[in-house]
């Protein structure tokens, strides 16, 4: 059987699923069953490239690794709401007036910035020079989520699929984007992303080809001027992890970095 069926059979017993919130586990399990329809013979006959996804040799591992930053993002959004912030009350990247910034406390994770005023000249010039938006957002939320060095995009696919089903994510997540140095038709087969986008069940996933070490990578991303950003970086190797931290620190519009390095030099 294809790897996706083995993943479904083992998902409830996996170590990671035992430590994330039950609501998320239930929704992800339903998503896995939907993805399994892509392994049906008639579907694979018309879209044979989907086999590289449904038969991925690390399918369950990839889902588990995507669950961890997804759970952390939900924790962060819940914390914002506990502090009294909601998408309409937080400043967008081009807002001219902002509520006062919260004083950090012991519960503030080191990997996120307090809801920040963003009125510096540097930030304004960066927004003005940005490329056109990826695409008009289909969600009213505030955050654009970038999956850095996305590869096959398991995290992007999972986030896009669960967001419509979970009110917390639906309130906050505006759009999902994969960033990778490889382009379509090179090292990446993205038939599964196309299938998700065509399904009507998930947020559209945008693909951005770009190198994280490029000086103008923030312009390459083409973030909507009214969006703030969340960066997710799973399995980044060597200097890529340091670069993700550097971009997080440098870009005022990025409020959260969920980083899970593969190896650090």
Can you offer a commentary on this structure?
- This protein has helices spanning 3-11, 22-36, 41-46, 51-54, 59-82, 121-128, 154-162, 167-172, 191-199, 217-221, 239-250, and strands at 143-148, 173-180, 205-209, 228-237, 254-263.
- The protein has 265 residues and is an alpha/beta fold.
- The longest helix has 24 residues, at 59-82.
- Strands 3-2-1-4-5 form a five-stranded parallel beta sheet, with helices on both faces.
- Strand 4 (228-237), helix 11 (239-250) and strand 5 (254-263) form a beta-alpha-beta unit.
Summarize the structure.
This protein has helices spanning 3-11, 22-36, 41-46, 51-54, 59-82, 121-128, 154-162, 167-172, 191-199, 217-221, 239-250; strands at 143-148, 173-180, 205-209, 228-237, 254-263. The protein is of the alpha/beta class.
Write the layout of secondary structure elements.
Layout: H1 3-11, H2 22-36, H3 41-46, H4 51-54, H5 59-82, H6 121-128, E1 143-148, H7 154-162, H8 167-172, E2 173-180, H9 191-199, E3 205-209, H10 217-221, E4 228-237, H11 239-250, E5 254-263
Parallel strand pairs: 1-2, 1-4, 2-3, 4-5
Helix pairs in contact: 1-2, 5-7
């Amino acid at each position: 059987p294809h790897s996706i069926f083995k993943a479904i059979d083992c998902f409830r017993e996996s170590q990671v699923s035992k430590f994330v919130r039950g609501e998320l586990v239930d929704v992800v399990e339903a998503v896995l069953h939907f993805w399994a329809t892509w392994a049906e013979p008639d579907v694979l006959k018309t879209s044979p490239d989907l086999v590289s996804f449904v038969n991925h040799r690390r399918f369950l591992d990839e889902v588990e690794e995507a669950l961890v930053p997804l759970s952390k993002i939900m924790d962060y959004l819940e914390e914002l709401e506990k502090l009294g912030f909601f998408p309409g009350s937080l400043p967008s990247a081009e807002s001219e007036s902002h509520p006062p910034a919260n004083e950090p406390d012991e519960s503030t994770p080191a990997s996120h910035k307090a809801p920040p005023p963003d009125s510096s000249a540097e930030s304004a010039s960066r927004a003005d020079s940005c490329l056109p938006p990826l695409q008009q957002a289909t969600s009213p939320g505030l955050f654009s989520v970038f999956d850095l060095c996305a590869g096959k995009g398991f995290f992007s696919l999972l986030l896009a699929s669960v967001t419509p089903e979970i009110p917390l994510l639906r309130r906050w997540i505006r759009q999902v984007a994969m960033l990778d140095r490889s382009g379509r038709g090179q090292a990446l087969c993205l038939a599964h992303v196309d299938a998700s986008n065509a399904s009507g069940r998930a947020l559209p996933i945008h693909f951005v080809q770009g190198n994280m070490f490029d000086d103008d990578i923030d312009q390459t991303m083409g973030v909507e001027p009214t969006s703030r950003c969340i960066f997710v970086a799973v399995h980044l190797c060597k200097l890529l992890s340091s670069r993700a931290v550097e971009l997080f620190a440098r870009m005022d519009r990025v409020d959260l970095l969920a980083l899970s390095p593969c190896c650090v030099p």
